[in-house]
Amino acid sequence: MKKKLIEVSLPLEAINEEAAREKSIRHGHPSTLHLWWSRKPLAACRAVLFASLVDDPSSHKDKFPTEEAQQKERERLHGLIKRLVVWKNIGDEQLYRDAYEEILKSTNSNPPPILDPFAGGGSIPLEAQRLGLKAHAGDLNPVAVLINKAMIEIPPKFAGNPAGKSGISHKTGRFLVGL
Question: Is a pLDDT exceeding 50 seen at residue 178?
């Protein structure tokens, strides 16, 4: 069975720095929609989802036969993660296309749907959608369900409409909504 990147290594320092920095963002961040008591940092969710789906280079000895080649590829993937976790890159559509292409390579062009049955504030399904993945979320708490609808289900219905018409700021293409 192929090892995933998350099983081998992650650029934890960069992920931790950006996850901590998110707490001070007050404009355009989904956390400003509603204070959720156990909100997961979006940067960490994005990195973990990506690294859970992308193969570690050691799983492809045909492409990366030496430790040095594997490490070089791992560093390239870490570089992609380091860019993905930076909040100011959230609107970089090329970055998200590149990340999605890496996911497709590791999933035979058939990425699995992401299920979060206890989604709470919706960090995991939101970041799954941002990475171009199909996401399913649920929760027992009706407030959590409402937050998820407001962040994940409703905005894509307005994608492509001018911001003034829908009242929602968005980027075209992938679900990149600034609430």
Answer: no
Per the CB < 8 A criterion, the answer to whether 116 and 124 are in contact is yes
Span 59-111, pLDDT tens digits: 999 999 999 999 999 999 999 999 999 999 988 999 999 999 999 999 999 99
SS3 state of residue 174:
coil
Encode 117-152: b = buried (16+ Cβ within 10 Å), e = exposed.
eebbbbbbbbbbbbbbbebebebeeeebbebbeebb
Amino acid at 171: K
- Please indicate whether residue 88 or residue 36 has the higher confidence score (pLDDT): 88
Inter-residue contact 81 to 47 (CB < 8 Å):
yes
C-alpha span between 65 and 83 (Å, rounded): 27
Q: Across all residues in the chain, what is the average pLDDT? A: 84
Take residue 141 and report the two structure tokens written for it.
């708490």
Of 103, 97, 126, nearest in space to 36 by CA: 126
Beta bridge partners of 176: 171
